[in-house]
Amino acid sequence: MKNKLRFDSRRRFLLKAATAAMAAPVLLGQPLRAASPNGRLQHACIGVGGMGWGDLQQFKKHNLVDIVAICDVDEKNLKKAADLLPNARTYTDWREMFKQEADKIDSVNVSVPDHNHFVIAVEAIRRRKHVYCQKPMCHDVAEVRILTLEATKAGVVTQLGTQVASTSGDRTGVEILKSGIIGKVKHAYLCSNRPGAVAKYRHVGPRPTEGIENPPSHLHWDNWIGTAPMRPYVPNIYHQAIWRTWQDFGTGWSGDIGCHIFDAVWKGLDMKNPISVVAEVQKSWQESPERRADTWPQGNHITWTFPGNEKTATDQLTVEWFDGEFYPPKEIRALFSETDYPAESAMIIGTEGALLIPHQKMPVLLPESKFKNYTPPIKPDRNHYHHFVDACLGGEKTESHFAQSGPMTEAVLLGTVAIRVPDQLLIWDAKKMKFPNYPLANQYIQRKYRKGW
């Protein structure tokens, strides 16, 4: 009973802090750690396996970065990174790393499973370290709100790991939307129907009860579990292959890819907090209590209603998301007739035409014949990681700083809340951070952390 009270108290505290963030003044914290005398960034990598290995490579390539510390719960990942960076100090617990490196590092990147993003990133920010955090920013809506506020108060440099936001395609798409060339926007259709994604990344069964083993000696399982409920170790189920499919650890397919696809639309249309959200999900998942309790579905159709503005045709804007077995309407896909409709893309419908922004490709104005003489404002590619480093060293603001990407991530994660109560329209009170018309869904705004976290 005491543990339950402690969990509930922490949840109430986080929600109270998150709602207070809406009215809180922006306060600058203590000065940041002084830059190195030679103008170099002293950086620590937290999570160096999987996506973290790629992130490490990018930071290593910047000629003004010294990776002085590396941390991973898996000693195999750590050894691989240490072989590449023999002078970096190594840790298996990020908490110990912060204690030992408090006055030695300027910045960190957080490249671990979603459920531990917040606790690591907020600790870094409170220690006045610049933070690059993989998407989604956090696992829960309330965590995002708090992290956004903390970053703003601290005045640190931040960057969400939406690397495609720094590509020419997305940056140009933003400029086209801002130009108004397609007229007032009426509707937006986002999708991620990546071939093979379902089989590769999503576990369709309930929590495994067979194949349970003791964690291997090289894996610090308690640290990997972190804020989530303790689960027995099962090879090839959680670490490090398909953790995204589990509600304990990941945010499903829409949470994983949604920030990428949403980004240019959000920026280009100056979007704000949604008014409502509703989700249609895979029928077999919806009809299975065991799967609904543990995993994310393999197909989602999420619909948000946002307040309109000077860029929209009406006082409300509808945005739809499709993944897995759900696809954008045929008539929308038919607008792009030259080849197969991009499996991952955003289609924005305006009063004077449409704009298709394929994931990792250049945008296309439709119908192409109408816009054949239009020269779009092409923006160049830039390195998302290096842009963060340059900002830490005094350069221009990052592409996906938390004040920009935090509210967008909140909207994406509200979609994951709607997934858990399918077919129920949820009215969102952004100021109070709750669903006044359906209180049952409020439990999904913030998790209960495991004791000690």
TrEMBL record:
It holds the Pfam family GFO_IDH_MocA_C2. Residues 44-161 form the Gfo/Idh/MocA-like oxidoreductase N-terminal domain. Residues 1-23 form the signal peptide. PANTHER family: BCDNA.GH03377, NADH-DEPENDENT DEHYDROGENASE-RELATED. GO terms for molecular function: nucleotide binding. Residues 177-284 form the Gfo/Idh/MocA-like oxidoreductase bacterial type C-terminal domain. Keywords: Signal. InterPro entries: Gfo/Idh/MocA-like_OxRdtase_N (IPR000683), Gfo/Idh/MocA_oxidrdct_glycsds (IPR050463), Gfo/Idh/MocA_OxRdtase_bact_C (IPR043906), NAD(P)-bd_dom_sf (IPR036291), TAT_signal (IPR006311). This is Gfo/Idh/MocA family oxidoreductase. It comes from the Bacteria.
